[in-house]
Structure formats: structure tokens, C-alpha cells
Amino acid sequence: MSNYESNGPSDNEWDERGELAWNEFDWENYLRSQDDVIHRYLAFYEKLQGSPERLDEVAHQMGWDEESWSSDIDFEAGAPEAGQTLEADAPGSGEFDSEPYTLHKNPVFIATKAIYLSMKRPWERLADEPARVPQDLALRFHASLYRGEEQAMLAIQALDFGDYAMAISLFKRSLRELNQSLALISGQAESTSRSLKDYGESALPRLFDLREIWLRVMNECREELERPAESDEES
């Protein structure tokens, strides 16, 4: 798959990493570093909000261009700028020279988590006061965001294991939840508060961006499923 392709572990990858034996501290550091990647994506995304090509431009900033999507290359957070030293290359950080592949490195995972985070945090601050957000809307929209993200995470996991048909089915479920989020927030043109209207204007393009990402992935999955198997090509 050419764009949002998974870079999941090969069958023998863990056998090749026999020397890798991390403790809880190592994994906590690893997970924190992957949280930083999500926030890095979000920083680029916020900066490029006004661009109609923001998804592709953020991918470029993250170093996810063409060859970088190859299944032979681990996903990274982008190449360092001139004069910049990556933390993993700094002295004393040799314990992370051979990081394992996990779902957290999948670009679709990173983009989905980042964009959802950009909607959940301001909603949690906004929706705690009935004067700004009706409480039925507060609960329903909050729940729809979490359900949509949950289904998307399951879809990305299926994608990572190469089960493209299941990934499509799960992304369809996430799209249904996303449509529910769209319906709830887009119905607030005559909102009860200015802050709610402002939130809706900010959330709508983010929801459409998520839909665009997932539709791209689903299209790539369908192309992969339609590709003849090697045995069919040889016969």
C-alpha cells in the first residue's frame, strides 16, 4: 500500500530481537517518546490549519513521504534539522538504538490520536458548564468522539496485522460514529453560546480530516485486496 500502509512486524522480527529485553522503565520511556510524536504531529497540524493540503503537508513535516512509507523502513518522527541531534542518538541513550515496532509508530494511529486529542481537550474544558453547552449535548458528543476513536484504533490494529477486510469493516464503524459527531456539532449554528459556536467551527474541519484519512486508508485496503496473489500471477 503506497500511502497509509501499515509497517507491522514481520513473522520473524521478534526472533531477530532476542537481545531486546526492556523493563517497565524502558517501556515507559518508549511510550512517552511516542506521546511526544503525537504532540509533534498536532503542533504541525495546528500550524497548517489554514492550508487545504494540510494532511499531506503535515505528513511531509513528519517525514512520511513516499519512500518513508515503505514496509522496509521503520516509521520515525521525521529527520532532524541541520545541527539538531535526536535524543535517541545522544550520548548515553544507546538503550533505545533498537526500538521495536509497535502500533504507536503507525502514521494512521498518530494522525488519528492527534486530531481526536485536538477535539477532546477543548470539549472537556467547554462542556462542564450548562450555560455554555446543554448537558445532553455535552454527554452525547463526548461519547461519540470516544466511540469513533475506539473503532478507529481497532481498525488500525487490523490494518497493522494485514487484515485489510476487517480494517475496512471497522473503519466503516468509525465513520458511522464520526457522522454522528458531525450531526451533533453541525446542528449548533444557532448555539446557546458563542464559545460553543466557535468550538463547532473548529471541530468540523477536523472531523472531515479524519474522514479523509480513513477513506484513503480504506481505498488502499481495497486495492490491496483486489491485487492478485503471487500464486495467481505465476499460474
Kindly list the characteristics that best describe this protein:
61% helix, mainly alpha, 235 residues
What can you see in these coordinates?
- By secondary structure, the protein is mainly α.
- The chain is 61% helix and 0% strand.
- It is built from eight helices and no strands.
- It has helices at residues 13-16, 24-47, 54-61, 107-126, 135-160, 164-186, 194-226, 230-234.
- The longest helix is centred in the C-terminal third of the chain and has 33 residues, at 194-226.
- The protein is globular and about 55 Å long.
What is the fold's blueprint, element by element?
Blueprint: H1 13-16, H2 24-47, H3 54-61, H4 107-126, H5 135-160, H6 164-186, H7 194-226, H8 230-234
